[in-house]
Amino acid sequence: MQAYAEENHTALIQLGGRPTRPIQWDVGPRNFEEGTDDCSSGEEDDEQRESRLIVDHWAHEGSKFAQELHDWQAFRGFQRRVRTKPIPLRERRVDDYWNERGIREALKPQLLNDPEQQSKVDEWKEYYWFQHRQLPAYEKRIVEEGRKKERWLQEFDAATVHTNCSDRPLGTTWLYGEWQSRDKIIEIGDCLTTRAANERDIHASTLE
User: For 60, phi and psi rounded to 5 degrees?
Assistant: First the structure.
């Protein structure tokens, strides 16, 4: 997993991207600011915890830079699609987006026909535009996680009332490979919603 993180970090740089930070080599408690809060539960001894922290750390580093690499590759595709439009239409599209969202004029990119000829400043302004367009998807996910919790609770209540299962402990339902209580379902649902909100906030912070 460490090699996976290094591979993605290096590939991003080679493709002209800029990682948000260097690889974190120190294996310690995961950084809540990066939206990696743990929604799992259960007790573990020191050895198990140390092993989990190492696995979790490098899994996070690998997935973080894999996502940044994926975003940069998607951005390159976005650049190509934008440039299939005539220049006046392309410029109007940018103007309309800036006006609708109230974005500072100084952040508006100059879109040359050949992206390779753009300055690094304009390239990152265009990347800002690309990333800004992702915010509605983050908002949608927060709503979807909230609806998921409500659906789980409805299914739990229906199962509690109508289902007679000798293998099911009283007042529980099967979720994530375990029999879960109603309070635990609420806890898991809230954790997933919080995680989605954290990821939205992290994404938004890169646009400030």
Answer: -70, -45
